[in-house]
Amino acid sequence: MKRTQLYLDDELWTALHVRARLGGTTISELVRTAARDRYMGNLEERRAAMEGIVGLWEDRADLADSETYVRNLRRGTRMKRLGIE
Fold first, then answer.
1. Are 37 and 46 spatial neighbours (Cβ–Cβ below 8 Å)?
2. What SS3 state is found at 22?
3. Tens digit of pLDDT for each residue in 43-73?
4. End-to-end CA distance of the chain
């Protein structure tokens, strides 16, 4: 865990202070929870979203085989990129 310092205006600090006291927690924990919810999202929601895209383009006839596509992108440049040529 990393430590950081935040500057909160008086109104926000008061609201967090009241909520922390009522909830039996700390302002730090409230901020961590809010940041986690806002920027990391719910793990189950993220998992469901990822599972929802599996096979999304499976039936698209206009797209080439993805393995072939990637191999064609990489063809002939790997050794050069590695400086082994």
1. no
2. helix
3. 888 888 888 888 877 777 777 777 887 777 7
4. 44
The one-letter code for the residue type at 61 is: A
The two tokens of residue 11 are 């109104």
Residue-wise pLDDT for 13-36, tens only, equals 999 999 999 999 999 999 999 998
Helix axis angle, 27-39 to 10-23, nearest 10°:
100
Q: How many CA atoms lie within 13 A of 60 on its CB side?
A: 9
The model carries a pTM of 0.51
Give CA–CA dist 28/15, Å, rounded. Answer: 13
Contacts of 63 (CB under 8 A, 6+ apart): 57, 69
| DSSP assignment letter at 58 | T
What does residue 49 show for φ and ψ, rounded to 5 degrees? -65, -45
CA distance 66 to 75: 14
